[in-house]
Design goal:
The complex is a heterodimer of chains A (111) and B (111). Helices cover 0% and strands 58% of the residues of chain A. Chain A has no helices and 11 strands. In chain A, strand 7 and strand 8 form a beta hairpin. Chain B has 111 residues and is mainly beta. In chain B, a hairpin with a 4-residue loop joins strand 7 and strand 8. The chains are: A mainly beta (111), B mainly beta (111). At the A-B interface, strand 4, strand 5, strand 9 and strand 10 of A face strand 5, strand 9 and strand 10 of B.
Amino acid sequence: SQTIHQWPATLVQPVGSPLSLECTVEGTSNPNLYWYRQAAGRGLQLLFYSVGIGQISSEVPQNLSASRPQDRQFILSSKKLLLSDSGFYLCAWSVMEPSQYFGPGTRLTVL
Amino acid sequence: KNEVEQSPQNLTAQEGEFITINCSYSVGISALHWLQQHPGGGIVSLFMLSSGKKKHGRLIATINIQEKHSSLHITASHPRDSAVYICAVPASGGGADGLTFGKGTHLIIQP
């Protein structure tokens, strides 16, 4: 069966520090991968999606970047965090649209 | 891009009441998701439906593709149903470019 892992579960970082959130999927091949963010008081918003290794599409301009170094690994990064980067980050995968399966999420607080 | 409107934003009801949450979207879709988010943040997929009606326990989801409208019903509501319920649709109708989410309905069921 397929599983999706995200880590860390919670993270508190100072403004200006770097960020790396990792998402891995097991039990499937060549999934589409997604990063979503839920800022405080707001709905979930798509940040990045990837249909293959090295292929990243960005939905909104921001302080973040994404990479897909392996088929089932999706990484969300920032060189310098802003206060506005605080939120709940969700990774999701799909092999047959529009089905999507969500990870447990990472709650990021930037102080 | 699809736009999603959910109503109501907040709903407080007494245990046992019948609950209805509504969702409208702007672009024709292949399927619609209903998600549940508990205070810890984790997302649970309740339904994905493309036509008609689906039932799971006390939860019922309906969709009218022509009207671009879906409803989520909870029968015999219970305090453990308290959560945020989120409607989501494919961002561009059915492609691999992720989901667009409603802002969620914050449901509180009082004993």
